[in-house]
Amino acid sequence: MEVRVxxxxxxxxxxxxxxxxxxxxxxxxxxxxxxxxxxxxxRNRLFSQLSGTLVLRARCDAHIVGLACCSxxxxxxxxxGQLHIKELYVSKSERGKGTGESIMRFMAKLAxxxxxxxxxxxxxxxxxxxxxxxxxxGGTINDGIVNYYLHGELLRKLASDxxxxxxxxTG
Length: 171
Prior knowledge:
The protein has 171 residues and is an alpha+beta fold. 33% of the residues lie in helices and 25% in strands. It has 5 helices and 5 strands, in the order βααβββαβαα. It has helices at residues 17-28, 35-46, 99-113, 128-136, 153-160, and strands at 3-7, 54-60, 63-76, 80-90, 116-121. Strands 1-2-3-4-5 form a 5-stranded mixed β-sheet, with helices on both faces. Helix 3 links the parallel strand 4 (80-90) and strand 5 (116-121). It starts with a strand and ends in an 11-residue tail after the last helix.
């Protein structure tokens, strides 16, 4: 069966519940997902007009067997954009069958259609299979970039600094 990759229209968000549940359970353990909370998250956050996220789905007939979430980031050199992949997931039963490559090819075409000069993504160092896959596509590690993040209490601490109030510029 042939895999078809397409943008998921916002009004079809419910079609993504099963594959998002599978992905979350793959990474964080069985039973981690509360379906009502996931549905609310998909409908009101991921698929909201303000999210700026494009959601792709890979279909094999009526079954969704993969997903990707990406955004075009600006500014980027020479009046272009950078398509950044936040998430790529392929059902365990579909791995090694070309589904991931089909999704990546779709995103590469999408990047070029929108005049992006680059396609970027992150991968966990510990995920050897994903890293082999990305390198097989020609992906290279950018050792000139360091990825920083704030999480939990450190995020709250920075946000609580009074000089960091939104609109706090008094000059």
